[in-house]
Amino acid sequence: xxxxxxxxxxxxxxxxxxxxxxxxxxxxxxxxxxxxxxxxxxxxxxxxxxxxxxxxxxxxxxxxxxxxxxxxxxxxxxxxxxxxxxxxxxxxxxxxxxxxxxxxxxxxxxxxxxxxxxxxxxxxxxxxxxxxxxxxxxxxxxxxxxxxxxxxxxxxxxxxxxxxxxxxxxxxxxxxxxxxxxxxxxxxxxxxxxxxxxxxxxxxxxxxxxxxxxxxxxxxxxxxxxxxxxxxxxxxxxxxxxxxxxxxxxxxxxxxxxxxxxxxxxxxxxxxxxxxxxxxxxxxxxxxxxxxxxxxxxxxxxxxxxxxxxxxxxxxxxxxxxxxxxxxxxxxxxxxxxxxxxxxxx
Length: 346
Description:
It is a single chain. The protein is mainly alpha-helical. It has one domain (2-282). The protein has 13 helices and two strands. The chain has a two-stranded antiparallel sheet. Helix 1 (2-11) packs across helix 5 (67-87) and helix 7 packs across helix 8 (149-159). The relative contact order is 0.13.
């Protein structure tokens, strides 16, 4: 166990060289170049544009060394250690899901001849399906994290960030991270199972450095600016189809008008279908967080324990509201008083 944890700690810097990780050095360089172009083109709202000013703008100590950002860094490391220590026996994996889906299709529809399509066509179909189904399931889980009170208490750890840096993507409760890991196994396993049934076992994905080519392209288009103070909109038309960094920053806004908006990861079509899409040009200056009524999650222990505490308190809060609602007809002092933050603080 200790050896596994130690190896996990040593391997953490490998995130910088893994194209499947958001903070892959290639994506970070691309985001830096885009941010520089925005700064010197005048789209970044700075009066004087110098190289020194660029450094102060991008790497402000007020942001990168803030208490909120330091918690992001701590959660990145500690969550990885917890994952290595606890997840291996219980996390869902892709292979059994794929086998189950393929076997289920065979049981439902019987044996069938594999579709004889050109290998290039199968390659494209498989790659596109992986990207679309992965993005759809991300949206659905993200929607649930916002709409289901039990799940929102865990997801609120991510939204409690008061500043955004590329490391904020790793600011999450271990339970939420576990849900996303299981989601990935289900999404990939389903697509693999269906494609094995239709095209046979000789499947391959169109990739760049091991990452789905569409995921790679999207991340290279400034995905690391999503969690940053650098405002970059794709424009009105493109934002109907792709979620821009500015749109995701709006998602983190502490303005109640922006709650539960722009839930998509890469594609904006899911938000359009659900009526949750908002474009960058529709919004003015924003600040991020979960609102002035909840400034919690200030430490690792608080981030881990508070969601559990709030979920344990929620049933009692409902009982208190019901009791006080009945008692109001007698105009007496409330029977039960409960003082905890609820979703209105989101």
